[in-house]
Amino acid sequence: MNIMLFHSTYGLRPAVESAAERLRAAGHEVWTPDLFEGRTFDTVEEGRAYKDEVGVDELLKRAIVAAAPHSEQGLVYAGFSLGAAIAQTLALGDAKARGLLLLHGTSDIAEGTSVDELPVQLHVADPDAFEPHDWLTAWYLQMGKAGADVEVHRYPGAGHLYTDPELPDYDEEAAEQTWRVALGFLDTLRQN
Question: Which of 15, 73, 94, 97 is at 20 to 30 A from 189, Cα to Cα?
Answer without folding.
Answer: 15
